[in-house]
Amino acid sequence: MGTQIRISREDGSLPCEVCGFQTMHVAQVVADDGKVLGRTLICTTCQRSRHRPDAVAETESPPDEVPAG
Torsion over CA of 35, 39, 40 and 43, rounded to 10 degrees? Predict the structure, then answer.
């Protein structure tokens, strides 16, 4: 299953420095066995707006180097 990030419903939220919404939460990073590995800040608004790049879009993009000619 891997590690999980758990956001507590009881803890409050903070304003996000990126989007400005009151959706920044302190979350726990939890291992498979339930052991808390640490904490991190997660903005639920910014996480929703992020998208993973399409594999197809990456292969169709032009190369970084331009051939000399």
Answer: 80
* One-letter identity of residue 43: C
Residue range 37-50, pLDDT digits in tens? 999 999 999 876 65
Contacts by 41-50, CB closer than 8 A, 24 or more apart = 41/14, 42/5, 42/7, 43/16, 43/18, 43/19, 44/7, 45/16, 45/19, 45/21, 46/16, 46/18, 46/19, 49/19
9-21 pLDDT per residue, tens? 788 899 999 999 9
